[in-house]
Every structure is written in C-alpha cells, then in structure tokens.
C-alpha cells in the first residue's frame, strides 16, 4: 500500500494547503495538499481508512468512534507549518468530528528530505521531534501545540487525520491501551488463562464506565 501511495502522489497535483486551515493556523500554514474532495484524495483516503480498520494497535490505542477523511500534504524547500493547535471540532463532509487525537502517517523516507520534523509541545508529554520511517504513524492528543519544522531540502509527503475517540480523556485511553496490550501478551501465552479473563474483565468494565457513545 505504501508504494502505491508514493507512486500516485509523486505525479499528483497539489493545491495551497491554507484552503483547509482557519484562524491562526491559516496564518502559519505553508504547504500544499491534495485537493480535498478530489477523486484521487477520496480514493487514497478510503484506502488508508480501510487499512487502519484492520490495524489492531491503531484501534486499541485510539478506540475510534469517528475518523476524519485523511488529507495528503506535501512540503518542499522553505515550507513549514508554524506552531498551532488543531480545531476542537472539525467540520467535515461526514459531519462534525471532535478532534481528540491527531495522527501523522509519514510517506517519505526520512533520508529523502531534510528538516520537516513533527514537533510537539505538550505539558504532559514534553517536547518531541518526530521523523519516522515511511509507512510509520504517530498519534498524539490534538490538544497539543505542534508544528512541522521547515523543510530545507527534498520533499516531505505525509497523510494526516483526526480521530474522535469513544474515550475523551487521554489518561483513560492510555489505561485501556495498556490493558489491551497486556491482554494480547497473555493471549499469546495462554488464551484460556484466568489472568487473561481478569484483564479482559477490567478492560471491558472500564470501557463500559468511560465510553462516550
């Protein structure tokens, strides 16, 4: 799938990325993106969503209730996205989506461009600079101040999307993700163990208590 995305995006027509920004984000955004609503954007976006539905780590970590249509962005030399926070509620063709979690899927090999790190400033998470291998994804609370550092060489391709989670609170999501990971490890060792049953009981009882559905 990664190769197909890279091939299709290599020759695709990109437009000014500010068309999807609002408020202060519009002032600090300087990139291009695949035209939202275009046939290619819809086709590739649906392919990404179909793939994510089958990625256990994605589902376990985010507990998605609604997911925005993916956007495909490109940064070339001199482009960046200044420090900003994402809109709390996104107005989409599918209706409003509360942006609990933001996710960036890196599509360019990190050695193919210089700069362009995703930089996150968060009181709870600390400051982070992220530049991952092509095909890797990074999800983080959409409440975080973040930016894309200036690209000084090459071309940075990425896919970005937002998730409205069944669990609003990031601390509660982390607890459920940890329990889910523990259950997976126990299942590998002994799918009928009493320990697994207890972990799953705790997971589902907390999910029942916290879920916003």
Automatic annotation (TrEMBL):
Cofactor: L-ascorbate; Fe(2+)
Keyword Oxidoreductase: yes
Cofactor descriptive note: Binds 1 Fe(2+) ion per subunit.
Gene3D superfamilies assigned: q2cbj1_9rhob like domain, Rabenosyn, Rab binding domain
Keywords: Dioxygenase, Iron, Metal-binding, Oxidoreductase, Vitamin C
Binding site for Fe cation: 84, 86, 146
Residues where 2-oxoglutarate binds: 156
Domain Fe2OG dioxygenase span(s) in chain numbering: 66-165
Entry-linked PROSITE patterns: FE2OG_OXY (PS51471)
A Pfam family of this chain: 2OG-FeII_Oxy_3
Transmembrane spans: none
Record-linked InterPro entries: Oxoglu/Fe-dep_dioxygenase_dom (IPR005123), PKHD_C (IPR041097), PKHD_hydroxylase (IPR023550), Pro_4_hyd_alph (IPR006620), Pro_4_hyd_alph_FE2OG_OXY (IPR044862)
Presence of the UniProt keyword Iron in the record: yes
Gene Ontology molecular function terms on file: dioxygenase activity
PANTHER family given in the database record: PKHD-TYPE HYDROXYLASE YBIX
Listed HAMAP family: Hydroxyl_YbiX (MF_00657)
Descriptive protein name: Fe2+-dependent dioxygenase
Origin species: Dyella agri
Upper taxonomic lineage: Bacteria, Pseudomonadati, Pseudomonadota, Gammaproteobacteria, Lysobacterales
